[in-house]
Amino acid sequence: MSVATHLLKKILTFKRIILMGYVASKSTVRGLKLPRIHLALFGVSAAIFITTAFSLVSDNSKNKFEAGSFQTELMELPSPDPISESPSNESELDESEIIKHEIKKGENLALIGEKYKITPVDIHYLSSQRPHGKLLRKIRPEEMLSFTFGAEKQLLRVDYQPDPLTIITFDRDDKSFRSSSNSITPGREILFSHGVIKQNLFYASQRIGLADALTMRLAQIFQWDIDFVLDLRPGDSFFLMYEELFVKDKFVGHGDILAAEFINQGETYTAVFFKDDLGQGDFFNLEGESMRKAFLRAPVEFSRISSSFNLNRVHPLFKTVRPHRGIDYAAPTGTPVLAAGDGRIKTASRTQANGRYVVIQHGRQFVTKYLHLSKFGRGIKSGKMVKQGQVIGYVGQTGYATGPHLHYEFLVNGIHKNPRTVSLPKATPIAPEHEQLFAIEAARLFSLLENYKGQMRLAAEH
Q: Are 306 and 328 in contact (CB under 8 A)?
């Protein structure tokens, strides 16, 4: 047993008392408060653990538990202000005039410049400045521009906010402009959600108010272990811990999913997010194994299987017994088809039977095939290297096909295997030098998720 695994198990031994004590001491579960003696004991345990191990949450953090969600407010870090306040530290701008403009439908930089009497030469220098000038050629309605004018209405500065967390600044440099990009560090809140499957994942998520984009990210975490079309059953459930981002108390989007658990047909899959000292982040189970596998379980998201792997299948067109050495995924024409794993395109061509098709070689052992495509993905051709999840084509009905679908084959050492049941090789685990740090972070995140589950159980009992 590694030092990291031993440390993780030791830490998890304390997780329920410590984390439930800390949060319960400040939280109310649907109006139900825990007994004072329990809160006192929990508080003492939490204080000892936090002092000797690691800081879990700030003493000043504020916890909320509301109708199916639990959220923790985190400290907002200093960051550049958005355009709505766009101050400047340059002395030459102290006596300047600042005009803020919300872009309207049909406007471009030239029309806006004409409105504020900005010279065509300045407009040209702004839009052609590298590397950010091209962004000004793609401005969109409801985005913000800020113009700073000096003496005699000379344009000194332009601030452009292409998204809620980025400000691009163009400062006058003699006759032209120089540009820089500044990131706005948002405030973060941690929220928790719990859903139960009745029909499908999206329906369950929508019932608890989870955004579709977040649902897709949840599915992508577990896509190597769970087929979200075929494997889900009523009663399956999930727990999710994620971030919401705020700038000046305004919601600007979702941050990272920090931890998640999915219970599928009685089997539990747990994932925690870990970012190493180089800033590279990914999802791992509690043992430090990557949630990723070398191959996706299915190369088409949220489709259905119209024909399974069957070596004794009767062909629907020729009415003869012909082995079906792959799986047919029925989906609308144009649905993206993804590379199941990293590899090199061996063939991207067309035949009468296969229609448009792609064959990918993955090292020496593995080959995947994708048939009946309506068209290839951008840049897809023989000899091209592709990454797992890259769009290599789109579902179609070319070749011998009775309807729009993807025929997908998986070969190991030249032998066809069932893509749904073949054992998939694992991706790279936590690096040895990060094992101890991962153990601490995994324990922290998993303990918070376990605490939320405990809160849910208490709420359900009352």
A: yes
